[in-house]
Amino acid sequence: MFGHYTYLLIDLACIALPLIASFEHRITFYKKWKWLLPAIFISYLFMIVWDHYFTVFGVWGFNPDFLLGIEIWGLPLEEHMFFFCIPYAYMFTYEALKHLVKQDYIGSSSLYISGLLAIGLPIIIYLHFNQLYTALTALCLEFLLIQHMYVFRSHKRYLGRFYFAFVVCLIPFFVLNGILTSLPVVIYNNRENLGIRMGTIPIEDLFYGLFNLLLVVTIYERLAKKRGDGILGIEDDEGEQAEVK
């Protein structure tokens, strides 16, 4: 494709438009960086450890033909950038959709969506506990969903918005991951996954992305709520949503 610049250019292409549009006067996404940047960085710390050990254990690897050749902690520089560029692009979409689509169409169903996932994921873990990518991804997503259902109770505030933005982002997800897996930039060990592909994309990537982005949104919304600046409002002592002026 673009030789050793391929993965770098994919990262930059993902973030370029959202970064420029962050200064658009109706969205003013840059004003939310005070919550966004810590959320992305905290998520990055978790995901990069996961990524590092999956590389060490041979769950996946990277094709040097498409990399700059700069490594940090055994991972390509571009892979580190991935965990900043993709969450930033998603979070811009998440906030922009609040302005473009005023009604939260999925909000009333978000608890049921989470519940169905929470029921199905333990079955996957039980049946495929010896496949590291499948089992660990399902386990982490299960834990985070349980937190949202019973601790954060985010279905009352922002979980519907999260799912809606995730569905919208599936289009660039399939384009991006399709490029990364078809060249391939990222090489998967099929002994550690189900071997089920969406085109060239392992199905686990869908749940891996869901977990990563939900983790970022979780931290982002918690930070915003702490300061009383939640975009969708904050819950009062009775658990009802209160408007933030």
Written overview of the protein:
This protein is mainly alpha-helical and 245 residues long. The protein has one domain (3-233). 61% of the residues lie in helices and 7% in strands. It contains eight helices and eight strands. It has helices at 6-21, 33-56, 77-100, 110-127, 132-152, 159-168, 170-182, 204-226; strands at residues 60-62, 71-72, 75-76, 186-188, 197-198, 201-202, 234-235, 241-242. The strands form four sheets. It has a two-stranded antiparallel ribbon with strand order 1-4. Strands 2-3 form a two-stranded antiparallel ribbon. Strands 5-6 form a two-stranded antiparallel ribbon. α1 runs parallel beside α3, α2 packs antiparallel against α8 and α4 (110-127) runs antiparallel to α5. 37% of the residues are buried. Residues 231-245 have low confidence and may be disordered.
What keywords describe this structure?
disordered C terminus, 7% strand, 245 residues, globular, mainly alpha, 8 helices, two-stranded antiparallel ribbon, 61% helix
